[in-house]
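Q: What does the assembly look like in three dimensions?
Context provided by user:
Components: two
Sequences:
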Amino acid sequence: MEIAEKKEHIRKIVRRARFEGKTIGFVPTMGYLHKGHVHLIERSREDGCFTVVSIFVNPLQFGPSEDFERYPRNVERDIEILKEASVDAVFIPSNEEMYHVQHLTEINVLKLSEKLEGAIRPGHFKGVCIVVAKLFNIIQPDRAYFGWKDAQQLIIIKKMVADLDFPVEIVPVPTVRDEDGLASSSRNIYLSSEERKKALILSKTLHKLKEMVELDKISDTKILIAEAKKMISSENVVIQYIEAVSLETFEPVSRIEKNTGILVAIKAGDVRLIDNVIWD
Amino acid sequence: MEIAEKKEHIRKIVRRARFEGKTIGFVPTMGYLHKGHVHLIERSREDGCFTVVSIFVNPLQFGPSEDFERYPRNVERDIEILKEASVDAVFIPSNEEMYHVQHLTEINVLKLSEKLEGAIRPGHFKGVCIVVAKLFNIIQPDRAYFGWKDAQQLIIIKKMVADLDFPVEIVPVPTVRDEDGLASSSRNIYLSSEERKKALILSKTLHKLKEMVELDKISDTKILIAEAKKMISSENVVIQYIEAVSLETFEPVSRIEKNTGILVAIKAGDVRLIDNVIWD
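A: Here is the predicted structure of the complete assembly.
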């Protein structure tokens, strides 16, 4: 596995792979890798791609009161995981390598970026769009793999790619869950065992909603959301939002059908968790 | 010369050229070609590039009260000029090919986009950035050629490319002038012969400023701007702005030195004209 810290180095590695006729698969991460990331990597490898992973905790997507400083990091462990997963190359740039003294360019996907996560984390998706655009331009992958866990991020990136004609295919990959059902996330480490137990209500609720839709054929989102609120409220967690929305516009929908989803954010203690169930 | 109207077609043409080991040079235009455009093409050909030209009158960079509808167009004549100039391929997309029903992604180069042209034409540079980003992603050139005539556009594009890591080298090319000194521009066709005669004060003034700086060694921008205003006011034209600025920040400078310029916009009758003298 090759490790590059400089843009020019990773570009050279990718150029060589492309010259050898390989398709480039890319998995952008903020490190502190878990099995969700490994699943993205496996998808890229199954697709026969020369697989590049980036590890970069992007300051631009954190708000001033958010957890940029304390976001978990362990690059040595990440590198072992990536080697184990047979990744071909990893790009681990510094902040200085990624951002000049005065970065002035903003990318904003209007409307989609303002709702749900965007309403709670103003500027978050601008930061995501900038770093993803930069990484796409540095690595120039043929395919990039994003998890459904961050559904709004996935859809905003897809929209940016379509609107700006990036020559990249965005491959959505289902959410991976830990054994207790909690969606795998680097931030799960913040949870005390007490909080984690409470937080499980989130995946349980989404599992229940999936059954209500698919087994009981209930598609009225009022009924589904009411049930979800009731279930989640049984635990001592705070619902930040729970909405049934179109996966194209994030506008609320009254019925579950193709291309809709129910997206939830809760706080268990001080820890924010997001999860969703989608019908794509 | 190959002519492509679809993104997939021009991508295929460029892929083939790249496969043959060629370097891709790109000249984006809004058509109604003049010798300024031809000069950009010549630069690309001198650099040994497989040269792609785009013709697209980009609606997003025109304000609601601007001249999008009446902007001069003559694709047949343009194609003859491009053949004559030995261009390899031309991309002539429709509006529908370039923009979906609902384009939501904005690109904004903060600060640089707000001054001078940006102050007079709000949103103009956002439209420019979007179309250039799209064209870069569609054509994926190694080099793109931009004229100093639109100095602010050139610098904003350079900043966008640096900030977003586009793998494109931006090549600045000196302004080309008609025989009477007027900077070549598609919009010159709007000028009556009377207006054109008045408009010549612009290039005469800039020529005089260049002499004052380079022969008389006057670098105090107060003196230079005062002289310019006096000269331009001798004709019946309106000065929209005349500023001596840094070519990095567009902040006013008190002395002419490396990487500064004097940028001017006037109105001769209803016709806006921009021009500049730069020390790069």
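Follow-up: The mean pLDDT of chain B is 97.
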